[in-house]
Amino acid sequence: MDHTSTTSEPRTPAAKLFSSSYRRPSYSRTIYSDRFIPSRSSSNFALFGLPNSSPPNSASSDDTNSTYTTLLKSALFGPECAGGFNGFQPLTPEKFVSNGRLGKRDRDGSLLQISPPNCNIFKYKIETMKSLHSLSPIEFDDQLPGGSYPPVKTPRKISRSPYKILDAPALQDDFYLNLVDWSSRNVLAVGLGNCVYLWNASNSKIVKLCDLEDDDSVCSVCWTHGGTNLAIGTSSGKLQLWDAHHCKRIRNMDGHRLRVGAIAWNSTLLSSGSRDKCILQRDIRTEEDYVSKLSGHKSEVCGLKWSYDNRELASGGNDNRLLVWNQHTTQPVLKYCEHTAAVKAIAWSPHLYGLLASGGGTADRCIRFWNTTTDSRLNCTDTGSQVCNLVWSKNVNELVSTHGYSQNQIILWRYPTMSKLETLTGHTYRVLYLAISPDGQSIVTGAGDETLRFWNVFPSAKSRQNTESEIGVSSFGRSVIR
Fold first, then answer.
1. What is the DSSP letter of 178?
2. 67 with 41: CB under 8 angstroms?
3. Of 3, 219, 243, 324, which one has the greatest count of Cβ atoms within 10 A?
4. Mind spelling out the 3-state secondary structure of 57-120?
5. Which of the four pLDDT bands, split at 50, 70 and 90, describes residue 4?
């Protein structure tokens, strides 16, 4: 059946909405919404020193909007592109470039040349820091005379993987020994069993320095400041001095009854700490085995460090005590007994005179800071695990700690906030040994898993950037140290 289409009035409410003849009813009440549309009709641009294109005594909204549009164009496209400046308008689709000349066609088809504007849009710039008013057409003098913005610093990247691993067979897992040291001539000394090996970090060359008697073993090693001679403490209580260049023993000094587990060099003195609870001061320029004996610990001495000015000697022992000595007395001048476990980790700050850091063993787990100049206790940080070693960076105010039970990690700290910069893992045993490279950028760690691992953790002294040191670049991979 055919139906004739006729135009009729919509009968349903939906049909009324889409009908052209439908008239929306007007409401007398005002409708409010959550949108805020600002009105600039009442704005007074004269307060900001802006040009007023409207004639005096004219308050029309069209003139106000025209002024605002002109300012907006000037900010986005540059002053040449604003309609109120030189009469130039931004490009439209009907404008084009013909024969390298910017223009558009007139009604008669002729090309009207327009001088190329100096527009800001799509212009590439390199700026380290933008001013708050960089997009405003109004010039603000918000920079003080003689001042400059600091450069934007990017966070330093610290690799979580060692750049080299050395196998160190027979590296002892003993908390009270100090078997690794890095010389100023870039040579690493490692005590393995009853032997001492030298590894040249510049060319990866390995030399066997000495071989002790079968009933003796190496307990500690320490380089002189010049890096030419190496002191070796033995389990028999002897202290030997070796010429590393000629692989020749220079002296063999007695004095201790038990093993020598800690050694520290002064400019003229060689200090040694032993399980016999004593510290012996030796002047290698004299014939005597030692010149003075320091007594203060009640158990084995396992940590020794001279300050950078060679005036104070810090010692830590298995009696949980940290003592500070000077060269003029045989009794400690300062005593700190706050630790609750053995104190092996000791480090003097190279940045602040008299600042000393110490770490406690398994029952303590804390890093404590002391001001030996004023004899004051500073802050304390609970690390959560046994503190085995500490070393300060020579280039920045940061320090590294190595740990044992129960996490076996290496932590990089920023001082004085003691915020963690990075945590390094990889050792499967306690990280008992730690030494820093002569350039101050790399560290080497040793553990009972019989490996030595090299890490880039500190920036260089010049660039303060975490760039790879020459040591790391020259020798990637894994090898055996003997």
1. B
2. no
3. 219
4. CCCCHHHHHHHHHHHHHHHHHCHHHCCCCCCCCCCCCCEEEECCEEEEECCCCCEEECCCCCCC
5. very low
pLDDT of 297 above 60: yes
pLDDT of residue 400: 97
- Give buried/exposed letters for 232-245 (b at 16+ CB in 10 A, else e): bbbbbbbbbbbebe
**Residue from 281, 180, 183, 267 nearest 223 by CA:** 183
Highest mean pLDDT among 154-163, 206-215, 459-468: 206-215
Q: What is the 3-state secondary structure (H, E, C) of 294-328?
A: EECCCCCEEEEEECCCCCEEEEEECCCCEEEEECC
Half-sphere exposure of 359 (CA within 13 A, CB side): 29
> CA torsion angle for 173, 176, 179, 182 (degrees, to 10)?
120
The residue-averaged pLDDT of 55-79 equals 68
C-beta separation of 157 from 466 below 8 A = yes
* Interatomic CA distance for residues 402 and 272, integer angstroms: 23
Q: Residue 31: CB partners within 8 Å, gap ≥ 6?
A: none
How many residues appear in the chain? 482
pLDDT in tens, 223-254: 999 999 999 999 999 999 999 999 999 999 99
Contact 222/265 with Cβ under 8 angstroms?
Answer: yes
Write out the H or E segment, with its range, that includes residue 14: helix 13-18
Question: How much is the mean pLDDT over the chain?
Answer: 80
CA dihedral in degrees (94, 96, 101, 103; nearest 10)? 10
Residues 6+ apart with CB under 8 A from 35: none
Conformation bin of residue 109: beta by default, left when phi > 0, alpha when psi is -120 to 50? left
pLDDT at res. 208: 96
What token pair was written down for 244?
């590393």
